[in-house]
Write a structure and sequence with these properties.
The chain is of the alpha/beta class. It has two domains: 32-171, no CATH class; 178-402, 3-Layer(aba) Sandwich (Rossmann fold). Helices cover 42% and strands 21% of the residues. The strands form three sheets. Strands 8-7-4-9-10-11 form a six-stranded mixed beta sheet, with helices on both faces. Strands 1-2-3-12 form a four-stranded antiparallel beta sheet, with helices on one face. A hairpin with a 7-residue loop joins strand 7 (252-259) and strand 8. Helix 4 runs parallel beside helix 10. The longest helix is centred in the first third of the chain and has 50 residues, at 21-70. It is elongated. The chain starts with a helix and ends with a strand.
């Protein structure tokens, strides 16, 4: 074999030899695979940390707002509490942050964890409310730097910064001034019985639709609570909420008017609920049903200019106005339906909130009250005494409530 031929054979063998290709390919691809794997790990960390950071901001804002309104904390104390909640929530999410009791003033400490205090701002705005209350708006803005592992850095990125913001609002127990007028059906059917037994009485005349007005009807046992008695208990339940919310009778004024086929002289709007409750407790069931004039009278009393000025003089507020319309039947004349609906439409257009309660009422009565109510949440159907009492209690709770809420 000539030298030239040997050289050709050697080149041919080298070309056909694949033994080192895998090693070279691995050397080229492995760093890329490690970088991609590192990026996947860091992406998971980023998603988890972002969720923890937002949860921490929410917890901090709510804690501060609650402390200001409910615990009487100073703004400095509320900021400190917010920072503690922020750190605790971050730790719970598995994120390392400094453990010192930072005050949110950017203190640098000797911890290995991230200095969350230096990267968080907590602002608090306090606003004086009419009357004796205060409202608070707490804003928390924070950020956290996620450092990437060595493999992700092969792509040229060392870290990423995550940001979170949250706000919370609260108020001290400032009683919102309100004026409420009750429009109550006292027609004959209100003398009829409910399904609730009167355990304090052995026997009584249990009036029903079938025996109503029959002079020969005699007392029977057991005795059942009448719808009128149930109404009086329900009104007392509503007014109890006002007594709890406004024990000094500084913010709440109530009035009441009764109707059957006639509209009766109302109990005019007065501070507290004593006069209105006394008026209701004297009602006796009789007559037909005509709600038009009574509803209009109640609305007109609520809208008197003197009602606003009376509140202004005593508590400095313009009151929220409520009308509560209750019936257990249907109007005897369609003209009363028309008049009642017209008043309700006008009242709602002028900012009066209308609650309606259909107490064991027929479809016609239910439809009228559905049309009158501010919305579906302001309409109640009560099929028994317990439901009636519950409905009036809910109305009392809603109209005197003070709430705190989280805003994003």
């Amino acid at each position: 074999m000539t030298t030239k031929t040997e050289k050709r054979a050697l080149v041919s063998r080298l070309r056909s030899d694949r033994a080192g290709n895998f090693g070279m390919l691995t050397a080229i691809v492995l760093p890329l695979m490690l970088a991609v794997g590192g990026m996947a790990i860091d992406l998971t960390r980023v998603v988890s940390t972002r969720a923890s950071l937002q949860d921490a901001a929410d917890a901090a804002a709510l804690a501060a707002a609650s402390a200001l309104a409910n615990d009487g904390k100073s703004q400095a104390e509320a900021r400190l509490l917010a920072m503690r909640f922020l750190k605790t929530q971050m730790h719970s999410g598995g994120v390392e942050v400094d453990d010192d009791n930072a005050k949110g003033d950017g203190d640098n400490d000797d911890d290995d964890g991230y200095d969350i205090g230096a990267n968080t701002s907590i602002s608090i705005k306090e606003t004086a409310l009419l009357g004796n209350g205060k409202s608070f708006s707490v804003n928390v803005a924070t950020k956290y730097e996620v450092k990437f592992n060595a493999f992700t850095r092969l792509f040229g990125h060392k870290s990423t910064e995550l940001n979170a913001k949250s706000s919370a609002e609260s108020a001290t127990e400032s009683k919102n001034a309100l004026s409420m007028f009750l429009v109550l059906d006292k027609s004959g059917s209100m003398a009829w019985i409910t399904n609730e037994k009167d355990k304090l009485v052995n026997s009584c005349i249990n009036w029903t639709e079938s025996n109503w007005g029959n002079s020969k009807t005699k007392a029977t046992s057991p005795c059942y609570v009448s719808k009128m008695a149930a109404l009086k208990l329900a009104v007392a339940s509503l007014f109890t909420q006002f007594t709890i919310a406004d024990p000094t009778n500084t913010f709440v004024r109530t009035g009441a008017i009764a109707y059957d086929s006639t509209t009766y002289t109302p109990s005019e709007l007065a501070w507290g609920s004593a006069a209105s409750l006394a008026y209701v407790n004297l009602l006796n069931a009789d007559g037909g049903t005509a709600s038009g004039n009574a509803t209009k009278t109640a609305y007109n009393r609520l809208m008197l200019a003197s009602e606003n000025s009376t509140h202004k003089t005593k508590n400095g507020q313009v009151p929220t106005k409520y009308l509560v319309l209750m019936t257990d039947g249907a109007n005897n004349s369609s003209s009363d339906d028309t008049s009642t609906k017209s008043t309700c439409t006008t009242a709602k257009a002028n900012g009066v909130e209308i609650y309606t309660v259909a107490f064991m009422a027929p479809t016609a009565g239910q439809n009228l009250l559905k049309a009158c109510a501010t919305d579906a949440e302001h309409y109640f159907e009560a099929a028994n005494m317990a439901a009636l009492v519950a409905a009036f209690k809910v109305i009392g709770e809603r109209t005197s409530a003070v709430v705190s809420r989280l805003t994003k």
